């Protein structure tokens, strides 16, 4: 396992980070098996573990906490806040009231007294980013959080957050966690260049594009497909385009004598902005398969071939672009006001 510096945090993190979204009710309900998977990842050299309060409504954090008993200082531990944790309208977002409660809940579930990287899971259109950064800065000063980051922020909001931190003297986001894969390349246009400009570490997720690039004979079947039926519905033209690209990428992987999943992850790590790529296995055999590709590297010819299949800066299915989910244009009343 190789290591890179996580932006301005100065932390040395493994190129593979273990994502734990699939641990708990959302995926693997066997806590003991999930704990063993975390230990297997650590034994393989992974020292970067990422979770979130919303993953199985806290169950993922609890599993991570169990796995790290007696091992806490061996990992860089990241979690996230901001997505709804209940029906109460105030159990989400980036306001100070919720952040203070959310971090205490995460610390309790994780069984630790500090979080290395605390990330805002999504932008909050209802809260001024200065309010969010102020609360997070207080958490850093209290010692409960070591560094803060954003997740799935569009480029303009990455810039706004950096500007607000500088103007008001708050701690700034030192990392960003964007979606990035061969099939989802929109972030190459503005998000990744913005992170480079501000010296941010990048912990990217979705390298296998929710299973499309896992190497299955039929990528539209499996656990992820059953959870996200629309994302794999072949009656949607964009998904047909993705399937055609996957078939070409499968041929490319075969010609390079490399499993498609290894090629997909190596592609993500080849981008100069990326610090670490999240792998999110559900079962032990999936983890073992992914770990086997830790040393995979793509040469320029292979990268050029990928560019011919999926042009840089594009998402093959426009519906995959998370930045289209914008309150300013989704709500007709706001568009016309």
From TrEMBL:
Protein name: Aldo/keto reductase
Keyword annotations: Oxidoreductase
Keyword presence, Cytoplasm: no
Organism domain of life: Bacteria
Annotated GO MF terms: oxidoreductase activity
All residue ranges annotated as the NADP-dependent oxidoreductase domain in the record: 17-309
Pfam families named among the record's database cross-references: Aldo_ket_red
Upper classification of the organism: Bacteria, Bacillati, Bacillota, Bacilli, Bacillales
Entry GO terms, CC: cytosol
Entry keyword annotation includes DNA damage: no
């Amino acid at each position: 396992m190789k290591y890179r510096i996580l932006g301005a945090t100065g932390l040395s993190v493994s190129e593979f980070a273990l994502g734990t979204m699939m641990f708990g009710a959302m995926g693997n309900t066997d806590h003991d098996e999930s704990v063993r998977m975390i230990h297997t990842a650590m034994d393989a050299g992974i020292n970067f573990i990422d979770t979130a309060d919303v993953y199985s409504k806290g169950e993922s954090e609890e599993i991570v906490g169990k796995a790290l008993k007696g091992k806490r200082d061996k990992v860089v531990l990241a979690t996230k806040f901001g997505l709804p944790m209940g029906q109460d309208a105030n159990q989400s977002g980036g306001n100070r009231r919720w952040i203070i409660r959310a971090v205490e809940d995460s610390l309790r579930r994780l069984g630790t007294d500090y979080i290395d990287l605390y990330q805002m899971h999504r932008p909050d259109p209802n809260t001024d980013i200065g309010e969010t950064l102020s609360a997070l800065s207080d958490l850093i000063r209290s010692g409960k959080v070591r560094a803060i980051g954003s997740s799935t922020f569009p480029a303009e909001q990455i810039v706004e957050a950096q500007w607000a931190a500088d103007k008001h003297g708050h701690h700034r986001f030192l990392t960003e966690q964007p979606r990035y894969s061969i099939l989802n390349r929109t972030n190459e246009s503005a998000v990744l260049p913005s992170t480079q400009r501000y010296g941010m570490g990048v912990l990217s997720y979705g390298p296998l594009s929710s299973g499309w690039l896992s190497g299955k004979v039929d990528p539209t079947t499996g656990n992820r497909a059953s959870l996200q039926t629309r994302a794999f519905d072949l009656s949607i033209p964009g998904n047909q385009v993705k399937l055609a690209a996957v078939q070409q990428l499968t041929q490319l992987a075969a010609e390079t004598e490399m499993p498609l999943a290894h090629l997909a992850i190596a592609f993500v790590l080849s981008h100069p902005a990326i610090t670490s790529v999240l792998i999110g296995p559900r079962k032990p055999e999936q983890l073992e398969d992914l770990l086997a590709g830790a040393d995979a590297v793509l040469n320029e010819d292979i990268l050029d071939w990928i560019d011919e299949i999926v042009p840089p800066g594009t998402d093959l299915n426009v519906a995959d672009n998370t930045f289209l989910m914008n309150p300013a244009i989704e709500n007709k009343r706001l568009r016309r006001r």
